[in-house]
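Why does residue order matter? Because the sequence determines the fold. Keep that principle in mind as you read this record.
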Amino acid sequence: MNPVNRVNPVYFNMNCRPGCAACCIAPSISSPIPGMPQGKPAGVACVQLDGDLRCRLFGRPERPRVCGGLRPSAEMCGEDAEAARAGLALLEALTAP
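Structure:
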């Protein structure tokens, strides 16, 4: 086993939190999304979120590559959905052009 995994395995084996969707709301996405051909601005929910805040495109080829690259981690997701949205909003502000 990799020694890093023993130190803090939560960073490597975290699943998305049901009802969170912070990564589908907080950041801007510049690539086209079905239903949002110009991408989406920060703070706006992706049109592909369903009523349970789950991605309708998850596992499908239409899902933008940038979305597939997002991986839940304790660092990104925080303790709860509110913390995740706040952290991602801060990251968005710090990296805005």
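The chain has one domain: 3-95.
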